[in-house]
From TrEMBL:
The keyword Nucleotide-binding applies. This is GTPase Der. It comes from Caldimonas brevitalea. GTP 1 binds at residues 12-19, 59-63, 122-125. InterPro entries: G_ENGA, GTP-bd, GTPase_Der, KH_dom-like, KH_dom-like_a/b, P-loop_NTPase, Small_GTP-bd. Gene3D superfamilies: 3.30.300.20, P-loop containing nucleotide triphosphate hydrolases. Keywords: GTP-binding, Nucleotide-binding, Repeat, Ribosome biogenesis. It holds the Pfam family KH_dom-like. GO terms for molecular function: GTP binding; ribosome binding. GTPase that plays an essential role in the late steps of ribosome biogenesis.
Length: 442
């Protein structure tokens, strides 16, 4: 069964500290925070984690529901959409700026939407006992929770309050569950119009594919279990799957949240691109998220039936420029509409899945390591020559190889890539990231 990550939306007027809080909750690398209003106009999505509970955070631009200027309207729309996508809302206000008319407008809106709302009073460093906090009861949202996003105070308990009603699966070590590694959990990700629904409908319409009854679903998660040539799959919805009589049907309804949730639940993601369009910004964003998630990935270039020579060249160039970081992913040329290239796509999916769950024994890994070192030893760094002693597998999905030895902090990235190539070649790892960790004993 698939249980999707809960989604927390951060809303509030500009400059109250939403982006700062977003960065705290997601520890995102590309933190964009500056001391002026309205820098984050769009919605930003990030992964959050509290202990072993994972969730998605959405940050929105500011919100001024009653103004008529274009940007403000757009921001209000972004906020409404974020709230609609969220399971819980954190309404951020600013204790130093005090209550404003905008805060009241937002509060009125939030009271009308029937969602879990937590009121976070930000910039409250050193003000936990301040009588100023009580003022915010006026909003009718409930108890104000003092936090300091900038100083990291109160964030944990705020997050706990937001997540309180949601159940989480027990965290299982990879391979603990008998099912893990047997069922291919599959998601098709891509921006609108690349052909996701067409592909899914083509798949689900195949007679060699037996779709089972839909299991109990949680939080809108729909997944369709099926079997193909004896291999069990579970297709995790990104495209608005719904049941129509006895068959499933994909309806086009793009949702960033659904895409992110499906990617994190899947163990193989098919990144679907429109070959007639080349790689767009949106494609690259989705690809980046897949990479961060550590999932196995297969790139399918769809609409191959409609590609002319010029488009082919443009496609080639945009792949090299924008998807270089997914070099480990196999690339398939397909037509979902004309049912072309689907056999090889299934094979690539199965191979990527097998790679993600490959078992690698310590003796074999260690032998490969020694062979590699003999072929080309790591460079000396000053007084230190890294000594690579043995290797073991530290995890699956994605595979992790842990190398033990001495002075390993001096192993260069180039050398790590060299080792990765040797391991990949031997174990025939395709379509999965491979992580290598160096563990020095002193
Ligand atoms: P947003 O417009 O709501 O996303 O607000 P930002 O996250 O961009 O923050 C606006 C300003 O408030 C920035 O100058 C932040 O450094 C500052 N800020 C954010 N959190 C805190 C806090 O906890 N305490 C204080 N004193 N300043 C904060
Ligand atoms: P989604 O938004 O990603 O689910 O995309 P759809 O499946 O709705 O497809 C968008 C459009 O692309 C539709 O008009 C499809 O008929 C068309 N399309 C999908 N796959 C192919 C294909 O393989 N070749 C061609 N020529 N068109 C396709």
């Amino acid at each position: 069964m698939v249980r999707m990550k809960p989604v927390i939306a951060l809303v509030g007027r500009p400059n109250v500290g939403k982006s700062t809080l977003f960065n705290r909750m997601t520890k995102s690398r590309d933190a964009i925070v500056a001391d002026f209003a309205g820098l984050t106009r769009d919605r930003h999505y990030g992964d959050g984690r509290l202990g072993d509970r994972e969730f998605i955070v959405i940050d929105t631009g500011g919100f001024e529901p009653d103004s008529s200027s274009g940007i403000v309207k757009e921001m209000a729309k972004q906020t409404r959409q974020a709230v609609a996508e969220a399971d819980a809302v954190v309404f951020v206000v600013d204790v130093r700026g005090g209550l404003s008319a905008q805060d009241h407008d937002i509060a009125r809106y939030l009271r009308s939407v029937n969602k879990r709302v937590i009121l976070a009073v930000n910039k409250a460093e050193g003000m936990q006992e301040s009588p100023l906090l009580a003022e915010f009861y006026e909003l009718g949202i409930g108890e104000p929770v003092p936090i300091s996003a900038a100083h990291g105070q109160g964030i944990r308990s705020l997050t706990e309050m937001a997540l309180e009603p949601f159940e989480f699966e027990e965290d299982e070590a990879p391979g603990d569950d008998d099912q893990e590694g047997l069922v291919v959990k599959l998601a098709v990700a891509g921006r609108p119009n690349v052909g996701k629904s067409t592909l899914i409908n083509t798949w689900l319409g195949e007679e060699r594919l037996i779709a089972f009854d839909m299991p109990g679903t949680t939080r809108d998660a729909i997944s369709v279990p099926f079997e193909r040539h004896g291999q069990r799959f579970e297709l995790i919805d990104t495209a608005g799957l719904r049941r129509k009589g006895k068959v499933f049907e994909a309806i086009e309804k793009f949702s960033v949240v659904k895409t992110l949730q499906a990617i994190s639940e899947a163990n193989v993601v098919v990144l679907l691109l429109d070959a007639t369009q080349g790689v767009t910004d949106q494609d690259a964003h989705i690809a980046g998220y897949i990479l961060d998630s550590g999932r196995a990935v297969v790139i399918a270039l769809n609409k191959w039936d409609a590609v002319d020579d010029y488009q082919r060249e443009m496609l080639q160039r945009s792949i090299e420029q924008r998807l270089a970081f997914l070099k480990f992913a196999p690339m398939l040329y397909i037509s979902a509409l004309k049912r072309q290239g689907l056999g090889p796509l299934w094979k690539a999916i199965a191979d990527a899945h097998a790679s993600a769950f490959k078992k690698m024994s310590t003796p074999v890994l260690t032998r490969l390591l020694h062979d590699a070192v003999q072929h080309q030893a790591p460079k000396r760094a000053g007084m230190f020559r890294p000594k690579l002693r043995y290797a073991h597998q530290g995890g699956m999905n994605p595979p992790l190889i842990v190398i033990h030895g001495n002075s390993l902090e001096h192993v260069t990235d180039a050398y790590k890539r060299f080792l990765e190539g040797r391991f990949r070649e031997h174990f025939k790892l395709v379509g999965t990231p491979l992580r290598i960790e160096m563990r020095s004993s002193r």
